[in-house]
């Protein structure tokens, strides 16, 4: 049986996901996306995974959403409010969304997962730590290198080439 | 737990469908990035839900990996948006034609 807290978080998450894609202003869309990400963090708390929930809030709501908002503010004002959409494409997208929802929903309902319930205690932090440091430590190192590489790559990509412009000006 | 696994999976399916809609309809680079984030979050919700109900720590571990990799993806994606905006003065993907044959 679904409790009211779950229902509230589900409505918040899904409505703000739709709002993130459909709101006219990209800034409000970004704020709505923060609602979706926060709602997912709420689900993680309901699933007795507070560590993942805190990680989600710190990384997604804290940094990614702010990064997105700052990027939006770097873009021209007209582009923030621009909403060019093909009506045919929009209906096709809604059809695709319904097909995905119905087909995956049918698969989920006909699978055996509706009978899965649990009374066992939640996973302990220690087990997650053991997973990271004993079983998946090469993946952890690789992830750290990927993060460092991608952030460095992003900075190099977004850097202004002022030296070239200065040379062109002097020429 | 009062909620069942299927409840979380249904929310996850709904978020996935919304994300796919966004990716197929929107032509704005930033909105497409929003849609990708929604899809990634749907996947993470599934991972953590199954980890809770099996119960197994692997799902939470992989969700943490996924969140970290998504942060890297967003950093690169936003840098690409800035570069594309500087080049084309627009963030509509239909206008990014340099790689078209």
From TrEMBL, chain B:
The chain crosses the membrane at residues 6-25, 32-51, 63-88. It is found in: Membrane. Its main location: membrane. The keyword Transmembrane applies. GO terms for molecular function: oxidoreductase activity, acting on NAD(P)H. Its EC number is 1.6.5.11. One of its GO terms (biological process) is ATP synthesis coupled electron transport. One of its GO terms (cellular component) is NADH dehydrogenase complex. Keywords: Membrane, Oxidoreductase, Transmembrane, Transmembrane helix, Transport. InterPro entries: NADH_UbQ_OxRdtase_chain4L/K (IPR001133), NUOK/Mnh_C1-like (IPR039428). It is a multi-pass membrane protein. Belongs to the complex I subunit 4L family. This is NADH-quinone oxidoreductase subunit NuoK.
